[in-house]
Design a protein that fits this description.
about 20% strand, TIM Barrel, 8 helices, alpha/beta, 6-stranded parallel beta sheet, binds iron/sulfur cluster
Length: about 200
């Protein structure tokens, strides 16, 4: 047996945002079943049981979307309790979750902190750049809400990093973006390169 990692998408590609370069939204429009809806308890139990019982030493469980927090905090409370139940070999379980930050509140932060989640928060540069590309379904910029999520994380001591999509416009302003992040105290950063034209 080896350490294992699993990536879980509890709400399929569903999301409360409509970013200009969302790969998943595009993917959904091109497949036979656009959304598989919310993962049921039977499926999450099956996944956890198999992955935890077949892992040696450590098991990494990551949640992505769409926006995984749309599954609701009760789904995650149940998930963590199932994982504990299946962890008969007492291995280390590392949790991670990627979020756009819109639903983050004190309750989520307590949950992340108590269960040692590493959270990735999607922020794409300064307010000006972020709001141009990362919008709600109704077309409003989301920087204020996302930056507020970072503040709540800081208050609760949640471990998080900033995940940034580097597209042509942002790539031309990396000094400005890096300084902006540094001044905000966002020292843990990840970058993914966007290779296509944004329409
Ligand atoms: S937050 Fe993520 S999943 Fe949602 S629209 Fe933006 S890129 Fe897509």
């Amino acid at each position: 047996m080896k350490p294992m990692s699993v990536l879980i998408k509890p709400v399929s590609g569903n999301c409360d945002m409509k970013c200009a370069y969302c790969f998943y939204r595009d993917e959904q429009t091109h497949r036979n079943v656009s959304s598989f809806g919310m993962m049921n308890d039977r499926t999450i139990k099956n996944v956890l049981r198999k992955v935890i019982l077949h892992s040696a030493g450590v098991c990494s469980i990551a949640f992505q979307g769409g926006e995984p927090t749309l599954a609701g905090i009760d789904f995650f409370l149940r998930t963590v309790s199932y994982a504990k139940r299946f962890n008969r070999n007492n291995i280390r379980i590392d949790y991670a979750l990627q979020t756009n930050g819109l639903n983050i509140n004190e309750q989520w932060c307590r949950f992340f902190k108590e269960n040692h989640f590493l959270v990735g928060l999607s922020i794409d540069g300064t307010r000006e750049i972020h709001d141009k590309y990362r919008r709600t379904v109704s077309g409003h910029g989301t920087f204020s809400q996302t930056a507020k999520a970072a503040e709540v994380f800081d208050r609760h001591g949640v471990a998080y990093n900033i995940l940034t999509v580097v597209h042509r416009e942002l790539a031309a302003r990396t000094d400005e973006v890096y300084t902006f992040y540094k001044n905000r105290g966002w020292h843990y950063q990840q970058y993914i390169v966007f290779l296509f034209e944004i329409h």
